[in-house]
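Changelog-adjacent note: as of this version, every example in the card shows the full chain rather than a window. The one below runs 83 residues end to end.
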Amino acid sequence: MATELTDFSLRVAGAVRAELARRNLSREHLIPVLGIGKNAVYARIRGEQSFEVEELAKIAAHLEIDISALVSPAMQPAMAVAS
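Full-length structure tokens:
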């Protein structure tokens, strides 16, 4: 059963893509980090499925960044509208 993703989930996926691009890492780099298959990683990167909090924590730990580096950019548009 497909579920519609929120704007927040889509922006988190964008933040993950941006962080990978900054580090010149491919999407395949996340397969062993997350312990899930290629199709599952790609679905998350494309924004077809939301990242779970635990997955974001694994990505952040692997990249040696704070998880907020992946979540905060996703919150920016929402906060700008609320102001």
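Structural remarks: The chain is about 65% helix and 0% strand.
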